[in-house]
Amino acid sequence: MVEYSTPPREIRGIYEDLARDVFDREEQLRKELPIETTAGISTHLSGVADDWKTGHKSLRTLPVCNVFACQRSQPLGDPLKRLLTSLDASVNVLDDIIDTQELSTESRIALTVNAAFSATLLAENCPPDIRSEVCSRLRNYFTALFQIPLVEQQLFESLRDAETKQQRQRTAEEIYAYRSRDIDAFVRIAAVVSELDPEYEQQLLRDLRTYRAHRLLFKDIYDVERDLTDDDMTPVVYLLQQYDSTESVVCVVEGLYRRFSYSDRGNQQYGDILCELEDPPSDLHSTLQEKKKLVR
């Protein structure tokens, strides 16, 4: 177990503080309402922190804060942590909107609440002296982020048409490589706020993309049952369907993992932190063997 300069509970606490603030405001508003109850919108904000705690949703702020702390030999400032946490919540909202085919009224309200209040948290923690640069990096990020559904769709078509193991592995690698870019803005904003040298920024970007690719690969393994239920295709689901033996799937998954590697400097400075946050299965073969039983 490694020691984090910024532990997960601190990041979750930022959003929990927001939920408590909104709860207090809602209670103050109660006496002005023509009804006896409130909409309870703070519970929708608390739900995001709960999803981070269970691992249901990704918390990109956590590896970024701890990697930057190792590189700079000091933690990131609290306003930057709040800014990144708000961005995390926003990206999770966008993921749900894109990935969920049919949203209930309750789900739409929850997503809208989090979109609105995460935006306020981001705005109030954006450094005014570099606001234009932060906004530019955010625009670049969202431009790339919204390509992911199309990239996945077309690459999955290529994956289905692949005739060899090498073609399948290469296409799956391309999928994880592009999906890993969902951490870019967290790195680029932390870099500009902390005035990081461009050379180190590129190193951290490459290493944190490697972390995300590894984490997404393992998360797809854990989420096989849910993805099958939701009819969501992932490289892991495809591989489990394509190969008859668990050993073959393990071989491809291990090959995919090795395609993304940390820099030598990164391994030395913060490799232990990122490897732990990847959260790999304790027994890859046994885990994939159990997941394969779910595939028909």
List keywords for this structure.
mainly alpha, 296 residues
What is the secondary structure topology, with strand pairs?
Elements: H1 8-30, H2 42-54, H3 61-72, H4 78-99, H5 105-124, H6 131-145, H7 148-161, H8 165-179, H9 184-193, H10 198-222, H11 224-229, H12 235-242, H13 246-258, H14 264-278, H15 284-292
Description of the molecule:
By secondary structure, the protein is an all-alpha fold. The protein folds into 2 domains: 1-125, no CATH class; 128-296, no CATH class. The chain is 74% helix and 0% strand. The chain is built from 15 helices and no strands. The two termini are 38 Å apart. The mean pLDDT is 94.
TL;DR?
The protein is mainly alpha-helical and 296 residues long. It has helices spanning 8-30, 42-54, 61-72, 78-99, 105-124, 131-145, 148-161, 165-179, 184-193, 198-222, 224-229, 235-242, 246-258, 264-278, 284-292.
